[in-house]
Structure formats: C-alpha cells, structure tokens
Write a structure and sequence with these properties.
Layout: H1 2-26, H2 68-77, H3 81-95, H4 120-138, E1 159-164, E2 168-170, E3 174-177, E4 181-182, E5 191-192, E6 196-197, E7 202-204, E8 209-220, E9 235-242, E10 252-257, E11 264-275, E12 280-287, E13 293-295, E14 300-307
Antiparallel strand pairs: 1-4, 1-5, 1-14, 2-13, 3-12, 6-7, 7-12, 8-11, 8-13, 8-14, 9-10, 9-12
C-alpha cells in the first residue's frame, strides 16, 4: 500500500517539478559564444582570456585586394594640388562664383607715343572750316539758288532799301497801302534778290524764313497848321502787314499823334516777321484824323532775310 501511495504522489507532483526545473534553467547565466573559424571575421581579434581552449589558431589570410571603387577614391584623395585647383577654378568660372578677392593691380604699361601739337592757329583754322561747311550746307537748298557768287564770306540772299518815287496823299479815316517805290541811286543803297516789287511795294518771301522789316514815314504838317479839324485824339498808324491782312496776321505797328510843333512828323516802325514761302509784306498808313495827310517821298521801306 505504501508503494502505491508514493507512486500516486510522484505522478501528481511531476508537472510542477518539471516547470520549476525549466525556470531555473532559464535563469542560468549565458555563457560567451565561441566563434567558429567559419563565422569569425578576418580582422577580428579575440582577447587572450576569451580564446577557446584547445582550438588551433586559423592561418592568417593574405591581405584582401582593394576594389575598383576604393582605388578610385584613393586616387582622388591623393591627387596633386595643382590639378585640384585648376578643376576648382574651372568650376567657379562656370558657376559664376568668384574664387577669392581680386589681387593687386598690375604695373602700368609703357607710355604711348606723343600726340600732335595743337596751336591756336590750327584750332582757329579748323573752326573757320567748320563754319564754312555749315554755311554751305545751310544754303545748299532753295535759298542757295538765290545767292549771288562772291569771293568768300556769308552772302545775304534777300535785302533791300527803297524810297517812294513821289509824295502820296492819305485821305481822312482811310487805310492806304504805300506803292510806287524806287531804288535810290545814292551810294549805300542796295536791292538784292528778286522778292521786292517796286511798283506794288510788296516783298514776297522766296523761302520760309524770318525777316527783319523797317519803315519810316515822313508827313508834311505845314498845310494843317491853323485848321480847326485837328483834335487831340487824331492819330496816324504805320503798319507792316502780311498779305495785306493787318487784323488777321501779326503785324508791326507804330502810332503817333498829329499835334506837333514841327513842320514834318516822322513815324518809324521796325521788327521781325516770319513769312512762309509765297507770303508778302507791305507798308500801310492808317489816317485816323479828319484831314488829308501828305506823305513825303523821303519815306522808306527796308527788309532783310535773317535766317531759316
């Protein structure tokens, strides 16, 4: 009976004993793993305390040959410095990045040959030639056909100075155009160009340009002395008009009163007018008094072409 009881107890307690035995096995410290010759790396070293006992040392393997990639890297690292600098400069030029600050300026170059000596006479001669060329170009157009031939110097294409042939009468409250001029025969008078008509007293512009005109009107007041028709508001106007349209275009004008102690009254007008080719300029007298005025033959009309 007693043997049967022990057998039953062992059968009941055997699984617990087996479980306790496995836990104890797991808590046992791990032993260092010994590397076999087949798994040990070539360059691995084992300390003396960990070398397996009784195992023969493996024969040392020959040094491994370097691969192509490794050799390429070594060649790049060991390249000469001048080759690396040249490659860096080329890369910097392509990328537009300066490799460093600019260096100091170089030495100055050799002096050039001496220039030509320029004197005041040479400068004056060149200036005169420039003026001559500019004058020739200026008058090379339609105006050049009107210039008479001369021996140097700038010639005036259109200019005139003329006087009336005889006295003229200007009725009261009327506007009269002066006509019937003549070129004075005295020395100093001139009539250049073909723009002036002496008979009509009109100057026609051959080209579009700026002209200077002047007119002098001399009136005899001896016949008006002692007459009651002269008043303080009586005036006379002297005008130089364009195309006989004194009120439409710009005109040169001078006004004078008739109350004077002298026997002759003089009215003068002068100025500049711009005429287009084909336009005319002439002298007008506006008698604003209540008496007829006598215009003397010494009255004159002058004109001059100034420029385009």
């Amino acid at each position: 009976m007693r043997g049967w009881a022990w057998a039953a107890m062992v059968a009941l307690l055997w699984p617990q004993l087996a479980l306790l035995g496995g836990v104890g096995a797991r808590r046992e410290p791990k032993r260092p793993r010994q590397l076999s010759p087949s798994t040990m790396p070539l360059n691995a070293t084992i300390p003396n305390s960990q070398e397996p006992l009784g195992l023969p040392k493996p024969p040392e393997a020959p040094a491994p040959e370097f691969s192509d990639a490794h050799m390429t890297w070594l060649n790049f690292v060991r390249r000469p410095d001048d080759v690396a600098k040249k490659r860096c400069r080329a890369r910097d030029k392509k990328s537009g990045v300066l490799s460093g600050p600019p260096g100091p300026p170089g030495p100055p170059g050799p002096p050039g040959p001496p220039g030509a000596e320029i004197t005041q006479e040479v400068l004056l001669r060149e200036f005169q030639e420039m003026l001559k060329e500019a004058t020739e170009r200026r008058f090379s157009g339609p105006l050049g056909l009107l210039l008479p031939e001369g021996a140097g110097g700038q010639l005036v294409a259109e200019a005139f100075h003329c006087r009336l042939k005889g006295p003229l009468l200007a009725d009261k409250k009327t506007l009269v155009e002066l006509q019937g001029f003549q070129a004075p025969a005295a020395q100093g008078a001139f009539l250049r160009g073909s723009g002036l008509s002496l008979a009509s007293g009109r100057f026609t512009a051959p080209v579009s340009a700026i002209f200077q005109f002047s007119a002098s009107l001399h009136m005899d007041l001896s016949e008006l002395r002692g007459r009651s028709q002269l008043r303080a508001r009586d005036t006379v106007r002297l005008l130089i008009c364009i195309d006989s349209l004194c009120h439409r275009h710009t005109s040169l004008e001078a006004i004078s009163g008739l109350e004077s102690n002298s026997r002759v009254l003089t009215v003068h007008v002068q100025g500049l007018l711009q005429l287009q080719a084909g336009q005319s300029a002439s002298v007008f007298v506006d008698n604003g008094s209540g008496a007829t005025l006598t215009i003397q033959s010494s009255s004159s009309f002058s004109g001059l072409l100034l420029g385009m």
